[in-house]
Every structure is written in structure tokens, then in C-alpha cells.
Amino acid sequence: MTELDPVIHAAARLRITATLAGLDEGDTITFPRLQELLDMTAGNLSTHLRKLEEAEYVAVVKAHRGRTPVTDVALTRRGRRAFEDYTDSLRSLLGGTP
């Protein structure tokens, strides 16, 4: 039986990863925009991003644009590969059911 990645499998992290996977490789999204798209609180999103960052699936970059602090989020290559493996595993599991 195929194992699903527990880092991605949590519902909130799956939503985050799927949203980031929809971006072109190398593209980023701002934290507030991601929060808006997913309708998550800042604290909840931060907690799940930290878990994904620890697994090196996402990169979170804090910078300033002028005097305004900005946090950009992107899926790493490792994260994109993990998401592809996750979706392949899920398809395999679903294909095995009657």
C-alpha cells in the first residue's frame, strides 16, 4: 500500500501546497494573498507554513519593499516533487478501490 506524506496530508497543509503548486516554478505569493485565498487566520497559516518550511517544502522570505515589510512564500523544488509524489500516491490508492 502506498504511504501518503504526513507533512502534506494534513488538510490545511494540503490546501497550502496545492495552492503553491498552482504557481509557476520560481513564482512567489505574498503571505496576505495566500491567507486571503485560503481563508485562514494569520496564526494558523504561519503554523502550517512553519511545518512545511521545516520539511523544506516551502521557502518563506521576509524582506522590505521600500519601508513596507513583505513576506513571500514559494514552493521549493523539493516541495513540488513531494506534492507530485503525494498526488501520484493518492491516485494509486484511489485506483485500487472498487
Automatic annotation (TrEMBL):
Q: Where is the Winged helix DNA-binding domain?
A: 18-94
Any one Pfam family here would be HTH_34
From which domain of life does this come? Bacteria
Q: Cross-referenced InterPro entries, in alphabetical order?
A: WH-like_DNA-bd_sf (IPR036388), WH_DNA-bd_dom (IPR027395), WH_DNA-bd_sf (IPR036390)
SUPFAM superfamilies in the record, alphabetically? Winged helix' DNA-binding domain (SSF46785)
PANTHER family referenced in this protein's UniProt entry, alphabetically: BSL7504 PROTEIN
What's the protein called, per UniProt?
Transcriptional regulator
List the source organism: Microcella daejeonensis
